[in-house]
Specification:
Oligomer: single chain
Helix content: 25-40%
Largest sheet: 8 strands, mixed
Order of helices and strands: HEEEEEHEHEHEHHHEHEHHH
Structural class: alpha/beta
Amino acid sequence: MSRSRTDQAVSPRKRERGIRKLVHLSRLMIVGSRLPLTRTPAEAGLAYEEVVFHATDGVELKGWFIPAGTGPAPTVVWVHGWLWNRMGNVAGRVPFRDRDVDFLPATKALHDAGYSVLTFDLANHGESGDRRPLTFGPWEGRDFVGAVTYLRSRDDVIADRIGAIGMAAGGNTVLYGAPEALPLRALLIVQPTKLTVFNDNFARDQLGRFGSVVARSMDVVYWLRRAPLPSRQNPAIPAARVRGATVQYVQGVGDPWGTIAVVEDISAATPHSLGVIRYPSPPGRYEGYRYVMDDTADVVGFFDRYL
């Protein structure tokens, strides 16, 4: 049976939409998109300082330092996820299903518990400088090392009592950077990823049956740009070198792009891991990030015990 004129007319439009989405997603994966800053810690009644420091390769990074008080204090570094900024994520700017992620509740809770907090924009995000392409950990680890180095230059930071919260690609970033930033005391890593698994699941979810082909082709782009190949990335490798830090992993059980198995493998490689909290999230990756918003007492409790 031949297709109707309507079917024949719709098909090119669908193909065009699919191509546009593919191009848009590819650009987001490689180049990123800057989420503007629309809020500050003052919204939660927190005093803060505008700070500027540099990654180990010289990229300028901007952030906020929120002091616990007037004297030296233990300090927690926030490391945000892909396409976010130092405050978290604002939903609705990307061509896939996302949700708001708000760092302020946990930041306020940590401050009130006696911790200083540094929250900053990774390279290619927010107000920080450029470094392309995005590598989802290996090159961004330079930003984390720069942040820790900066904190150790401050008189109001206890140099050997620094911890971090890494979200998604920010979790990978912490793991890649941590071996060069030791000693660190406590790391909370929420939904880290192995890029081959994430890219394949994400591409198939967004682009259908050809998504896996698109995901595998990313190696070519990164090879041409002389950047770390996605297929060779495994955060379990640097995690094995994070000695002396207690690490707690969190993974949402409803995440369609990440997997419990990957996070468990990373955890197993980590010398001092407390294991993986299986967060009871409904279907969706962003639902797993609610751990840092809804379970702030647990977040503070982790740092109270290990930092």
